Amino acid sequence: MVSPLISYSRNIFLWPFKIYLLSMNRFMVEPSPLKRIASYFIDLVLAISLGFILFATLGQNVIAKGFGAEEASKNASSFAVSSGLAKYSEDGKGADIFVYKAKGLNGAKHGYEGYLNCVWHYYTEFLNVAKNPDERVIARTNSDGKAFTSEDYYRYFFEKCMGFAEDSSNSNPYFEYAKEGDNILRASKPVLNATYQAKVDEGDEDALQSLLTFFYNETATSQTGLYFDAIKDMKGKSYNASSVQTYYEEQLLTYSYAIWGAEALCLAPMTIIFFLVLPLSLKGGRSLGKLAMGVEVVDINGFTMSTAQKIFRPIIVTVIHLLALIPNATLGITIYLAISVTSFLMMSLGRRRMNLHERITKTTVVDKRSIIFKDEHEKSLYLEEHNLDEKGNPLMKVSEVEGGPAINLTKEE
Question: Which of 85, 70, 393, 87 is nearest to 232 (CA)?
Fold first, then answer.
């Protein structure tokens, strides 16, 4: 037999917990945060996975091609190869830059010679519209607006690219003008100066590496050198502010928009199906993720959602996800992530555990064990029939009994 003292102490200790139980809303069972997060990611993963499967099969092969992606890619590659700065890749579908090694490639005695040939051809032959009939090339102009002459292209190469002084003095550490006797040959490729020519003849590895670095130097974070500057000039203003070429960049932009259009047409329908169509079609605003995790959506007061809530909640969710598909991918994904993180913090830290679109539509997510009423009248009838208070607790009174406070579960007359 339990002593009155032990019984009284136990009741005093459990009293706050009993009061908490009595104050709980027994109709709206809140799901765990893990359930809510899991239900969302199930829908997200399914939508993205099916969208990319559709893109890999139909999008790339049909839709992107219809938007001109393949033609634009071929045009850009053709322009790059014609410039002399690139070669076709092994599969023939794109253009790769040349990467000359220190010794022996394509018959070049030393790698720097290959780079020199590339940049010389680009600046003095390819860009020179007087020599090159390619209508895709835009001629450079002087300050008076007149197109460069052949002499202007040579001067631009030596002075702006190689760094030679305008007075023809030698200011480049590696190269000098080719000469015939005492006459400077401005229309001929530059040659190594005597100091570096001697080092190259001796096979000085440090000298060869310095020459390679002058034309092309690649690190984990950057690419520099005269050859890389020429590539940026060929690609256009987005890569080199002083460039006047537009063709490559225009074709690349056409390709990018074609790929974006194909991705959007594959991912958007999946997003609409999983975040709009299914929640509108299934009871309680459920999606496949919510069905899997056993949760549903209700009005903030615990009633069945109104027609407006049932429509606008999935619309808002869908629009948020579609923001990630706007043409500027960086901006779209940034906006989507900002909204998603804000919404998550609202749900995690807010007193009512409601995220952004729930606050807007005044809805919330509950466990499937919850009892959801159609309206206030239906709830009143249920409470009266089952002798419950507003939160689903049995009507009761707290009375003093021997041994301390206790709970009387019989209805008070």
Answer: 85
Give the position of tokens 């001109």: 68
Q: Please report how the helices 33-54 and 247-272 are oriented relative to each other, as an axis angle in degrees rounded to 10.
A: 130
Number of CB atoms found within 10 A of residue 379's CB = 20
Computed on alpha carbons and rounded to an integer, the radius of gyration of the chain in Å comes to 37
In this predicted structure, what is the pLDDT of residue 349?
81
Report the 10 Å Cβ neighbour count for 116.
Answer: 25
Q: pLDDT tens, 71-107?
A: 999 999 999 999 999 988 877 777 887 777 654 444 4
Helix axes 329-349, 307-322, angle to 10 degrees: 130
Cβ–Cβ under 8 Å, residues 184 and 168: yes
The average pLDDT across 16-45 equals: 74
What DSSP string describes 22-71?
Answer: HHS-SSS-PPPHHHHHHHHHHHHHHHHHHHHHHIIIIIIIIIHHHTTHHH
Using an 8 Å Cβ cutoff, are 94 and 77 in contact? yes
**At residue 27, what are phi and psi to the nearest 5 degrees?**
-85, -45
Asked if pLDDT for residue 408 goes beyond 90, the answer is no
Helix, strand, coil share (%) of the chain residues, nearest 5 = 55, 15, 35
DSSP letter assigned to residue 148: P
Burial 218-248 (b: 16+ CB within 10 A, else e): eeeeeeebbbbbbbbbbbbeebbeebebebb
- The alpha carbon of 43 is separated from its chain's Cα centroid by a whole number of angstroms, namely 19
| 218 bridge partner residues | 223
Whole-Å CA distances, 228 to 30, 112, 171, 233, 237: 60, 13, 21, 9, 14
> In three state form, how does the secondary structure of 224-240 look?
ECHHHHHHHHHHCCCCC
Amino acid at 373: F
Q: What pLDDT shows up at residue 412?
A: 44
Mean pLDDT of 281-292: 94
Characterize 7-33 residue by residue with b for buried, 16 or more Cβ atoms within 10 angstroms of its Cβ, and e for exposed: beeebeeeeeeeeeeeeeebbbebbee
Please tell me whether residue 386 adopts helix, strand or coil conformation: helix
Query: CA of 179: how far to CAs of 51, 92, 149, 169, 188, in Å?
Result: 64, 41, 22, 13, 9
